[in-house]
Amino acid sequence: MTNYPLLIPFDKKDFLKSQYKLKWDNEAKMWYSTSQTTYNKLLDYHVVDLEVTYENKDIAKKLGAKWNGKHWITSRLNYNTHQQIYDALKENQHEPEEEKEETL
User: Fold this and answer.
1) In terms of CB atoms within 10 Å, which of 1, 23, 60, 95 comes out highest?
2) For the chain, domain boundaries
3) Which segments of the chain have a pLDDT < 70?
4) pTM
């Protein structure tokens, strides 16, 4: 059985959970559907992977992005709302402090 991950806003979770029989993945801290049909109906809540530099992580967080332990993610709806800002967040390159000191 395939789990289809969804990023559901807290204020919509109760309604969507009862309407679509969504389940909670406690390890991933994310809602999911076991039905591809349901998943396809909830396009706004599909997970979008983001490229965010370390120096821009706080901006991404303020926009509603979440760190999943590996990279930044957001919902399709959130990404579409803030697409220009998210695209700009990946442009700044972050150099670790050790590399900066060595180049001076």
Assistant:
1) 60
2) 1-45, 47-94
3) 92-104
4) 0.81
